[in-house]
C-alpha cells in the first residue's frame, strides 16, 4: 500500500472517530443541590430551552448546563417519565409536590409533552374545587383585600354553584 | 427544594385545561391567578375552535378580551342565517348551543294563512314566530347537523313555545321524538298545556308538562342524545295528529339543542 493509501486510511479513521464522538456526545446538567447528571443529546432535544442555548453556542466540548431551580430528585423523576414515554400511570404515582415542581420545570425548559401531561394532571386535581382548596394545594397566600375578594366573587357568582366539598 | 410557586404562564396553561366555570372561580385564589385566569390564552381555548366562522356572519362589537367575548356569547344568543337560527355558548362548559327558529322548522300547513300565521313577538329573539290559528293535524319537524355541536357531549332538544288563549291542548297527548344515526332515538308523550286542571285529567295524568324559561317562553324536553362528533343528523319532531281536536293559540319560538348534565 502506498503513501496515498495510508493517508486515505487515516482520514477515514478520523472521520469514524468524529462520527462516534458526535453519537455519544453528552450534556451535563448541574442541579440545585450540586449533582451533575450526564444526559444523552437526544434527551436534551426535548428540552427546548437547552437546545436553543446549544444551537446558539457552537462548541465541541461537552456542554455544562446549570439548573439552579431543579433538584436532582426532580430531574431524575423527569428522566424516568421521559424513558417511560410519559406513561399516565407514572404520572399518577407522583406526589402533588413532585407534580407541581415538574410542571414548573417543564415550563422553564419548554418541554411540550411533559408540560401538557403535568398541566392536565393538575387541572384534573383542581377542577370543580373551592378557592380555599386551590390556595392550599398551591401553597398560595391570598393577596386580595377582603373588599376586592367580595367584589370579584360578586362578578363571578355563577361560577360558585355546585363546587365539590374540600 | 422549597417550592417557589408556578409562574403565570404555567398557571394559565393549567387553567386552560379546566372549564370556564373553574377559571372564573379560581381567579379569586390570588392576584397572580386572577391575571392568569383572565388571559386571552385561557379563553381562546374555551371559545370553540370554529367560533370565528360561526359568528363571522353577525355584526358583533369588538370586545376588549377573549373572556369578554366568551361571556357575551354565553349571555346573549347570536342570531345567524337571516334570523333562522341562534348560537350561544353554555356558560359553565363553553359547549355550543343552537336554537332553530320556527322559520327553520318544517311546519305542516305552515305556509297557509288559514292555519298558521307568522308574526313578530316582543319576547322572541327571532324576527318571526309561528302562531297557530287552527289545525287538527299538528306536525313540526326540525333537523340539525351534529357536526355543528360540541363533540363528546350529552345534548337534549327542547321545544320552546307559548300558549296564548290556547284551545285544544287540554287533556291531549303530544308525541315528542328525537332520532339520530338512523334508528337510534326516543319518543314520549307529554301534555303541552302548562296548567294542570283538577278535573278531566283523563289521558294526560302524570305526563310531563312544560316549564317556564327566563326569557318568557315555555320549554319542554323532547329527548336526549350523545354526540360523539361524527357526521350525522338529529331529527326532532312534535306531533299531535291522532286526537282529531282542533287546536289554536300555540306560538312556536323554535327548538333548542343544548348540553344536558346529570344533576
From TrEMBL, chain A:
Pfam families: Skp1, Skp1_POZ. Residues 25-80 form the SKP1 component POZ domain. Involved in ubiquitination and subsequent proteasomal degradation of target proteins. Together with CUL1, RBX1 and a F-box protein, it forms a SCF E3 ubiquitin ligase complex. The functional specificity of this complex depends on the type of F-box protein. In the SCF complex, it serves as an adapter that links the F-box protein to CUL1. The lineage of its organism: Eukaryota, Viridiplantae, Streptophyta, Embryophyta, Tracheophyta. Residues 112-159 form the SKP1 component dimerisation domain. Belongs to the SKP1 family. Pathway: Protein modification; protein ubiquitination. Part of a SCF (SKP1-cullin-F-box) protein ligase complex. The keyword Repeat does not apply. The keyword Iron does not apply. It comes from the Eukaryota. InterPro entries: SKP1 (IPR016897), SKP1-like (IPR001232), SKP1-like_dim_sf (IPR036296), SKP1/BTB/POZ_sf (IPR011333), Skp1_comp_dimer (IPR016072), Skp1_comp_POZ (IPR016073). This is SKP1-like protein. Keywords: Ubl conjugation pathway. GO terms for biological process: jasmonic acid mediated signaling pathway; protein ubiquitination; ubiquitin-dependent protein catabolic process.
TrEMBL record, chain B:
InterPro entries: F-box-like_dom_sf (IPR036047), F-box_dom (IPR001810), PP2-like (IPR025886). Gene3D superfamilies: 1.20.1280.50. It comes from the Eukaryota. Residues 1-46 form the F-box domain. PANTHER family: F-BOX DOMAIN-CONTAINING PROTEIN (PTHR32278), F-BOX PROTEIN PP2-A13 (PTHR32278:SF131). This is F-box domain-containing protein.
Amino acid at each position: 500500500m502506498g503513501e496515498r493509501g495510508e493517508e486515505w486510511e487515516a482520514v477515514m479513521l478520523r472521520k469514524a472517530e468524529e462520527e462516534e464522538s458526535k453519537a455519544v456526545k453528552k450534556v451535563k446538567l448541574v442541579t440545585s443541590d450540586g449533582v451533575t447528571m450526564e444526559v444523552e443529546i437526544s434527551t436534551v432535544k426535548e428540552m427546548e430551552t437547552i437546545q436553543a442555548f446549544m444551537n446558539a453556542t457552537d462548541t465541541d466540548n461537552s456542554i455544562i448546563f446549570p439548573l439552579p431551580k431543579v433538584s436532582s430528585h426532580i430531574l431524575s423523576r423527569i428522566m424516568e417519565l421521559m424513558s417511560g414515554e410519559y406513561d399516565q400511570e407514572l404520572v399518577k404515582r407522583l406526589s402533588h409536590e413532585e407534580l407541581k415542581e415538574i410542571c414548573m420545570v417543564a415550563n422553564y425548559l419548554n418541554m411540550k409533552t411533559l408540560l401538557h401531561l403535568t398541566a392536565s394532571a393538575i387541572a384534573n386535581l383542581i377542577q370543580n374545587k373551592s378557592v380555599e382548596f386551590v390556595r392550599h394545594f398551591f401553597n398560595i397566600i391570598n393577596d386580595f383585600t377582603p373588599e376586592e375578594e367580595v367584589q370579584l366573587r360578586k362578578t363571578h357568582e355563577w361560577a360558585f354553584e355546585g363546587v365539590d366539598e374540600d | 427544594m422549597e417550592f417557589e410557586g408556578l409562574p403565570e404562564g404555567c398557571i394559565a396553561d393549567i387553567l386552560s385545561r379546566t372549564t370556564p366555570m373553574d377559571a372564573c372561580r379560581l381567579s379569586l385564589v390570588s392576584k397572580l391567578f386572577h391575571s392568569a385566569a383572565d388571559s386571552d390564552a385561557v379563553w381562546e381555548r374555551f371559545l370553540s375552535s370554529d367560533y370565528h366562522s360561526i359568528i363571522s356572519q353577525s355584526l358583533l362589537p369588538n370586545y376588549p378580551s377573549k373572556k369578554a367575548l366568551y361571556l357575551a356569547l354565553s349571555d346573549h344568543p347570536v342570531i345567524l342565517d337571516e334570523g333562522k337560527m341562534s348560537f350561544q355558548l353554555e356558560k359553565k362548559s363553553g359547549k355550543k348551543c343552537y336554537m332553530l327558529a320556527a322559520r327553520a322548522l318544517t311546519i305542516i300547513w305552515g305556509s297557509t294563512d288559514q292555519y298558521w300565521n307568522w308574526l313578530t313577538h316582543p319576547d322572541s329573539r327571532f324576527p318571526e314566530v309561528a302562531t297557530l290559528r287552527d289545525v287538527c293535524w299538528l306536525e313540526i319537524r326540525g333537523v340539525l347537523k351534529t357536526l355543528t355541536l360540541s363533540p363528546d357531549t350529552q345534548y337534549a332538544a327542547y321545544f320552546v313555545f307559548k300558549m296564548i288563549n290556547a284551545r285544544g291542548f287540554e287533556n291531549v297527548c303530544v308525541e315528542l321524538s328525537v332520532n339520530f344515526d338512523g334508528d337510534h332515538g326516543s319518543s314520549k308523550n307529554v301534555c303541552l298545556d302548562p296548567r294542570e286542571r283538577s278535573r278531566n285529567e283523563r289521558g294526560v295524568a302524570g305526563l310531563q308538562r312544560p316549564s317556564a324559561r327566563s326569557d318568557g317562553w315555555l320549554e319542554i324536553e323532547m329527548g336526549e342524545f350523545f354526540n360523539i362528533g361524527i357526521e350525522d343528523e338529529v331529527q326532532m319532531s312534535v306531533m299531535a295528529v291522532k286526537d282529531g281536536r282542533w287546536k289554536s293559540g300555540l306560538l312556536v319560538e323554535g327548538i333548542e339543542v343544548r348540553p344536558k348534565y346529570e344533576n
